[in-house]
Design a protein that fits this description.
The protein is mainly beta. It contains 2 helices and 10 strands, in the order H-H-E-E-E-E-E-E-E-E-E-E. It has helices at 9-14, 37-46, and strands at residues 49-51, 60-63, 73-80, 83-92, 95-102, 107-111, 118-121, 124-127, 131-134, 137-144. Strands 3-4-5-10-7-8 form a 6-stranded antiparallel β-sheet, covered by helices on one side. The protein has a 4-stranded mixed β-sheet with strand order 1-2-6-9. Strand 3 and strand 4 form a beta hairpin. The mean pLDDT is 87.
Length: 146
């Protein structure tokens, strides 16, 4: 992902790519989807947006972002039959600031890292459990990563 020379996705980005290329070196088509499995990684892992197998069709989503080393922010979204799920986060001084948008008709399960003891949601402090049910709407989540 962070490799700056060919073959590498960052090589594409640093050379003006706005889509994945057909060939790693940029030859021929520069708008080919054959390597786009990486696109799912952005919203599934970095954004942490996954469907709950017990509630098909994104009626319930799991929110569990992974924070890769060297990455300090992410803006991710996933279109669902109910609307767009949005997970934006930013790391500041070992504190994760997350903005969620859960569309009407959906709920979310926020899965917190094991070491988190408490967090704030919409300004209110909560004791952390492994997961927290979140209704549709906009939400602000903040917790210490250390």
């Amino acid at each position: 992902m962070k490799k700056k020379d060919a073959p590498g996705y960052l090589y594409m980005i640093e050379n003006g790519a706005t889509t994945t290329w057909e060939h790693w070196n940029g030859a021929r088509s520069r708008m080919h989807n054959c390597y786009n499995g990486i696109g799912a990684w952005f919203y599934h892992a970095v954004g942490g947006i996954r469907p709950d197998e017990n509630f098909p069709g994104y009626r319930r989503v799991i929110i569990a972002p992974q924070i890769p080393a060297g990455i300090t922010w992410a803006k991710t979204s996933k279109e669902t039959p109910y609307g767009t799920v949005v997970v934006n986060w930013e790391m500041k001084d070992e504190t994760l600031h997350m903005e969620l948008m859960i569309p009407p008709g959906c709920t979310a399960s926020l899965e917190l890292p094991d070491h988190i003891r408490n967090y704030k949601m919409n300004g209110k402090k909560y004791a952390a459990k492994y997961s927290k049910e979140i209704p549709s709407g906009k939400h602000q989540i903040v917790y210490q990563m250390n």
